User: Which sequence fits this backbone?
């Protein structure tokens, strides 16, 4: 599932933040690449996505055996689960019935034994894949951190634009609310 991603900041935002001449578009390819790179890097430390996208998360069941229930963490915000697919030892797969799973608290809870009973499965499951649409969440403090990262990368000051200054600015976003 691949789709284009609407970035949380755009070129005019970046040009304004960098105090660039608005009509000079010669640096646009570099800036566009920097926006995507920095968004990906910042999303790696945040508990949510900054831009809407389609996501696929797979978990092996080999270590779980035949537990009656399985929880699969989902990075959100989760807009819609499109499919929960169970893969079997013989290489086949099937969609888990919707009544055998639900999403709550950032996890997909799958009643595995119930799903297998409803599907009348005769082969042991070896994996679960969840395909879902994740929404975007970009509060102002995170948007500013993203602009800082793009500036760092554009000015070539840092190999990794996710500096301590950026991390301290988004610290509250990386920790659960207490």
Assistant:
């Amino acid at each position: 599932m691949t789709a284009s991603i609407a970035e949380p900041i755009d070129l005019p935002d970046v040009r304004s933040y960098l105090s660039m001449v608005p009509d000079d578009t010669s640096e646009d390819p570099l800036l566009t690449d920097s926006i995507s790179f920095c968004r990906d890097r910042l999303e790696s430390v945040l508990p949510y996505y900054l831009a809407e996208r389609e996501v696929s998360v797979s978990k092996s069941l080999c270590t779980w055996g035949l537990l009656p229930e399985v929880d699969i963490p989902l990075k959100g915000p989760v807009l819609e689960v499109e499919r929960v697919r169970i893969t079997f030892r013989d290489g086949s797969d099937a969609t888990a019935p919707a009544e055998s799973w639900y999403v709550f608290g950032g996890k997909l809870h799958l009643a595995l034994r119930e799903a297998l009973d409803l599907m009348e499965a005769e082969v042991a499951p070896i994996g679960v894949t969840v395909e879902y649409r994740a929404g975007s969440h970009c509060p102002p403090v995170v948007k500013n951190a993203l602009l800082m990262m793009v500036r760092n990368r554009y000015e070539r000051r840092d190999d990794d634009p996710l500096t301590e200054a950026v991390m301290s600015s988004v610290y509250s976003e990386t920790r659960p609310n207490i």
